[in-house]
Amino acid sequence: MTAVDFAVFVEELADAAGRTLLPFFRTSLGAEDKSRGGMFDPVTEADSAAEVAMRRMITQTFSSHGIIGEEFGNDRADAEYVWVLDPIDGTKSFISGIPTWGTLIGLLHNGVPIYGMMVQPFTREYFMGDGKAARWRGPGIDHAPIERKLKTRACASLAEVTLMTPSPLLYPPDELAAFRRVETAVRLSRYGYDCYAFAMLASGHVDCVMEAGVQAYDIAPLIPIIQGAGGIVTNWTGGSAAQGGNVVAAGDRRIHTAVLELLAG
Predict the structure, then answer these.
(1) What is the pLDDT of residue 30?
(2) pLDDT, tens digit, for every residue of 147-184?
């Protein structure tokens, strides 16, 4: 399969997920709680159906590849090539009718993220990257599709930073204290938006995104997009974020360095 064919296949995966998800969006869809007594962690019929559709396509096209998915776990996660799938990143937004959720599709080669896509089917936006370049495609003013290169924005000082995180309620006490050290140093902080926050960082509208306790399928597909746009994403100690954990992404390396220093106390 050529690079062009590969890109087409990833978009086919994204479109298959979108066709599955959109009939459920803004309906009276019910949600089960996966948390088993913890903070509400919803999963819906839509999540499961979209992941099944993508898994089937991958298995039929790349029989030797592994898959890591949010809803159905790992299959040959030690394979040379492994797909990472999150059918709905932002299920709480999805069941609330807010279009800041997205489908995440990533590909690892020997554990390293080499390609990622975030698609928002309702707004018809695609964010994609290979670690070297990143681009966006979506509807223009006349609704005809347009495409442009993604580039993070320069930001020299924490006092100029727009910071985003899903919710402070998701942080354990120690991590929350570390996050607050960063939050008090920035110009503006905003809560919510899940994967859309990382997409806005790659687009040059946000300077830093922080999360605690994420899974590989939450972040691995976003890493090549952020890096391709000129940003950096690591764990809170500066190591790889590909396996999840506590992550921080920044559009400017100066901001990333400053945030890590604050996190270290």
Answers:
(1) 74
(2) 999 999 999 999 999 999 999 999 999 999 999 999 99
**CATH 3.30.540.10 domain span(s) along the chain:** 3-149
* Distance in angstroms (rounded) separating the CA atoms of residues 156 and 252: 8
3-149, CATH topology level = Fructose-1,6-Bisphosphatase; Chain A, domain 1 (3.30.540)
| Measured distance CA(172)–CA(169) in Å, rounded | 8
Beta bridge partners of 49: none
CATH of domain 158-263: 3.40.190.80
Bridge-based pairing of strands 66-69 and 81-89 is: parallel
Contacts of 212-215 spanning 24+ positions with Cβ under 8 A: 212/170, 212/171, 212/172, 212/175, 212/176, 212/179, 212/246, 213/170, 213/172, 213/175, 213/244, 213/245, 213/246, 214/244, 214/245, 214/246, 214/247, 215/70, 215/244
Q: List Cα–Cα distances, 214 to 76, 87, 183, in angstroms.
A: 21, 15, 19
Instruction: Identify whether the C-beta of residue 201 lies closer than 8 Å to the C-beta of residue 209.
Output: yes
State pLDDT tens for residues 61-81.
Answer: 999 999 999 999 899 999 999
In the predicted structure, residue 103 carries a pLDDT above the cut 90: yes
CB 136 within 8 A of CB 148: yes
Question: Look-up: residue for tokens 């354990």?
Answer: 172
**Residue type (1 letter), 84:** V
